[in-house]
Amino acid sequence: MPPADLGTQARGFAQEVTTLLNATITDGVTFSAVIGRPSGALVLGRGVTKTNLDPQAVPLTLGRRDPSAWLWVAFVLGPDPEGEHLTVYKSGFALYVDPDRDQMMLHYDYEREPAHSYPPAHVQVHGVAQHLSDLSERRSGQRKDLQDFHFPVGRRRYRPSIEDVVKFSITEDLADARPRWRDAVLESRSRWEDRQLRAAVRRNPGPALDQLRRDGVIP
Amino acid sequence: MVIESADDAEMQEAVTATLAAAGVSVEELRRQAAESRFVSERARRAWFVVSPFLASR
């Protein structure tokens, strides 16, 4: 079956993200996107338009209470090198104290081709980590704050997903959750893992074929 | 979901507006991105959304 066109794939991807969020920790959130021509690169987030590329943060509330926090969700998507499959080139999930997105708590970042030498998938946390800061100062003479450290969190195929951030927000009691949030997270994560597995096999079919032969699935 | 399509000129306009809102130039932002140390949250977010469209600058 040929892959759907990239616009359709992007729409489906956005629908999956909004379904997950509205089934767990948000209420009535929608996303929009701008696709740049001719590159096909697409910025996806809440409130994204041709005149505003910076996504708004999503209030973490189920509708009745004041938001406990704000979640910034952003993706840069685009076609893979073959132009067939939608690929995540960047993802960002950040938790803020305020709706203006000035007071950050933490952010998970992924860049397929980062401009820096830090891990492509990392988490940065705002706060104080005296031992880390002391060590950095002893080593380099320059004191780094906790937020300056890029903690690695897996690589291209096995990085944290939006489902992990949703679950983190709930299990650490940073946000209220709908009663069936576990089902929504499991369902969405299963789709994510299938997609990542397919991408991994497309790029490196040898080990997959070898394992299927060993298991007797294929001759 | 709404997906808007922007041609190169429109996208460059959006990039310029994003940089202006963040109060940084392309050169400053590239430098900050290379060190992954941004002067502000706005600058960090600006890099996220504009970097795919900076090739022609």
Instruction: Profile the largest sheet of chain A.
Output: 8 strands, antiparallel
Number of strands of chain B: 1
DSSP helix fraction of chain A: 25-40%
Shape of chain B: elongated
**Fraction of residues in H or I helices of chain B:** 55-70%
Mean of pLDDT of chain A = 94
Label this structure with key terms:
heterodimer; A: 219 residues; alpha+beta; eight-stranded antiparallel beta sheet; 8 strands; globular; B: mainly alpha; 61% helix
Structure description:
The complex is a heterodimer of chains A (219) and B (57). Chain A contains 5 helices and 8 strands, in the order αβββββββαβααα. Chain A is an alpha+beta fold. In chain A, strands 1, 2, 3, 4, 5, 6, 7 and 8 form an 8-stranded antiparallel β-sheet that branches. In chain A, helix 3 packs antiparallel against helix 4 (181-203). Chain A starts with 5 loop residues before the first helix and ends in a 5-residue tail after the last helix. By secondary structure, chain B is mainly alpha-helical. Chains A and B meet through helix 1, strand 1, strand 4 and strand 5 of A and strand 1, helix 1, helix 2 and helix 3 of B. Strand 1 of chain A pairs parallel with strand 1 (2-6) of chain B, so a sheet runs across the interface.
Layout of secondary structure:
The complex is a heterodimer of chains A (219) and B (57).
Chain A: H1 6-22, E1 32-36, E2 42-45, E3 57-59, E4 70-79, E5 86-96, E6 104-111, E7 121-125, H2 130-140, E8 151-152, H3 162-171, H4 181-203, H5 205-214
Antiparallel strand pairs in A: 1-2, 2-4, 3-4, 4-5, 5-6, 6-7, 7-8
Helix pairs in contact in A: 1-4, 3-4, 4-5
Chain B: E1 2-6, H1 8-22, H2 26-35, H3 41-50
Helix pairs in contact in B: 1-3
